[in-house]
Design brief:
Number of domains of chain A: 3
CATH topology of the largest domain in chain A: BirA Bifunctional Protein, domain 2
Helix content of chain A: 25-40%
Distance between the termini of chain A: 22 Å
Protein name (chains A, B): proline--tRNA ligase
Largest interface: A-B, 32 and 32 residues
Keywords (chains A, B): Aminoacyl-tRNA synthetase, ATP-binding, Ligase, Nucleotide-binding
InterPro entries (chains A, B): aa-tRNA-synt_IIb, aa-tRNA-synth_II, aa-tRNA-synth_II/BPL/LPL, Anticodon-bd, Anticodon-bd_dom_sf, Pro-tRNA-ligase_IIa, Pro-tRNA-ligase_IIa_arc-type, Pro-tRNA_ligase_II_C
Oligomer: homodimer
Strand content of chain A: 25-35%
Structural class of chain A: alpha+beta
Catalytic activity (chains A, B): tRNA(Pro) + L-proline + ATP = L-prolyl-tRNA(Pro) + AMP + diphosphate
CATH architecture of the largest domain in chain A: 2-Layer Sandwich
GO molecular function, one term (chains A, B): proline-tRNA ligase activity
CATH class of the largest domain in chain A: Alpha Beta
Amino acid sequence: MGQEYLNVKFKETGHSNMYFPQFIPYSFIEKEASHVEGFSPELALVTIGGGKELEEKLVVRPTSETIVNHMFTQWIQSYRELPLMINQWANVMRWEMRTKPFIRTLEFLWQEGHTAHATPEEAEKEALQMIDVYTKFAYEQAAIPVIAGRKSKAETFAGAACTYTIEAMMGDRKALQAGTSYNLGQYFSRAFGTQFSDENGQRQYVWQTSWAVSTRFVGGIIMTHGDDTGLMLPPRLAPIQVVIVPIWKKADERTGVLNAAISVEKLLKTAGIKVKLDESEQRTPGWKFNFWEMKGVPLRIEIGPRDVATGSVVVSRRDIPGKPGKDFAVSMEHSALEAHVKSRLEDVQASLLQRATSFRDSNIVDASSYEELKRAISQGKWARGPWSASDAKELKVKEESGATIRCFPFDQPQGWKTCFMTGNPADEVAIFAKSY
Amino acid sequence: MGQEYLNVKFKETGHSNMYFPQFIPYSFIEKEASHVEGFSPELALVTIGGGKELEEKLVVRPTSETIVNHMFTQWIQSYRELPLMINQWANVMRWEMRTKPFIRTLEFLWQEGHTAHATPEEAEKEALQMIDVYTKFAYEQAAIPVIAGRKSKAETFAGAACTYTIEAMMGDRKALQAGTSYNLGQYFSRAFGTQFSDENGQRQYVWQTSWAVSTRFVGGIIMTHGDDTGLMLPPRLAPIQVVIVPIWKKADERTGVLNAAISVEKLLKTAGIKVKLDESEQRTPGWKFNFWEMKGVPLRIEIGPRDVATGSVVVSRRDIPGKPGKDFAVSMEHSALEAHVKSRLEDVQASLLQRATSFRDSNIVDASSYEELKRAISQGKWARGPWSASDAKELKVKEESGATIRCFPFDQPQGWKTCFMTGNPADEVAIFAKSY
């Protein structure tokens, strides 16, 4: 879901897919101080291999900066090899105490990008570019109106110079960090000795980035668009965009209805639409309606004997349940049906984004005092307000309200700002929320 | 490489992609007797998680039959859920003592299909269907003329009723088992209690299959087509099908050459060809020629100042080195160039398959006596001969010649056959070879 789209974007922006070993010698993890501190409580360790106790424990990768740097030191000699920009699709393991499906799991699937550059400017540009790729993916494919921005120092990943994030508002109004891009500076290159000879023959440490989205994003889609009936998938990411349910009662209706259903399936497939004909005779049409609604299929096409007679079908939208979302008597005629379905899929895509955007905007409060912030948070909302206070004050907000700074959004209001906590001038507004 | 093609084929044949946990409780592995016997010497075990010794060791999956059956028991209630047909793309771990890049590695990537059926006939049909998918993939995409067939009883995977295989001849004439499909019978369903209620309400064990190709196949491509210069990738699987190398000496030639190269790149990209313009100025054209030949790119396009003047380019084939493989003065004109490149890519694809097929056929000897077999094997060739002898005799062949039965090919010669070992009647010929 989305892997193909992201692969195209990664390649367009100059990255190659590679794969690195999943088992990492424990000594690698220890090389970067803040890295080992951050991850050591969460590691799964292999101590027995091929029936024997291992001399050195192996870490099941929680992320790959260490092994990537180990390889980069062997691949990079001079500025000619830079920038080196790779991506890996992989599973990672973090020993979480409290798990939640898709959001916080012991094992998850992700892509992790890793790049090495000759200058800090290039690394910064890359980190920003990739958070932009994620932002567009969220809006255009997943219909999730994320807010992109920079993490506060307190919330920045240990081992990174700067952390960029996309933050999504779930249906319960908690924030989900849905994608992350790190400007790693030289933390890892200094720890691993990842150096290159510049054009003057001087040895320099590379400047690095890493960036990732994971199966957590799938959780984000479920919790953004889903309702009590089940999933509601944005058409551009749905593995099945249209399900066809044939309906008949009398045996002599069967062939006519099925033939019509098969020809509609063929027509839509030829038009590049991901279509599923549910022709199983072991389930009733009502059972199938519920099943495919739960699965979040954006459009359903019903075909019964009367439809066959009139040469039409009924098209229903998952996002508008019941009669209001139904187009009765859509012509079965080739070009008419194709155009109708394509346009309805676009309607669903746009309407999911619009609905999520309205929901988000009606649940963000502009706070000009700490009291207002606390009130907004206690109502389950997000708060946005000018902030230039200390890390200690940030911790105080967290302890008293349960909310953290999700990000300083890239998109900032114009004009003079005063920190709502201290009354001092503030360069930026920050967004505060409770989060997963 | 090939993942997209296989995913389409898997979906066309009714399978859904899923993902199962990589860590498997040790007790699961112990449930199927021959399974634990086969895999226990090769397991990597996680004994520490989140800083604590685990109560039950976790196996890092060597394959997923056990965890799949654990889930299937929860998903399958009645015949209505059957057939259940899934595929997983995943990494697996086997603690190999002697490793060889791509062919035998501690960690490898693969797809593993797992299916459950109501009848043994359906399972057998599925196992055969999937080895056929692999066979077509090998011929049509990888240009590898594999021989598909059934493993002998002695070589059948423990825990399977029947093993189907595709066997490929490498450049050193060793055999590589490049893909496998198992009819698992009820071994796992009985061990795990994977049952369904049939139409009469009777509880029955499901009949299962599993099938896999892995990164080993990449090794097969390298060792089938590669030469002393490096890789030689079949165009249909090559991540880069055409590399463009611009060539100039004088500074005032640069813009003209680069503009021409960019427009050729654009033209080919629009035509759906995977093209790479190597415009870096840090390397010489000669360096680039060697580099991209080593990487196995099927076609190279050179553009120099004279080509720009005449509106033409030079096209070289990777599989025919030097002047014989060069088309000089191919028109840069849109439709002419597109047609030329597409046709040359097809030429390379066909020629790789033809070359590998000739090589294979000239290295298989029809043996009508054990002496002939041993001679063929000692010359590094494969031997094919009628076989109906015992498992003990099969072991004797292995011990004396180093060759094993690779398969009884589906494609059998007509007519009466006499076992070359015993002189008894034989139903089939078998293929013997040394293997990886």
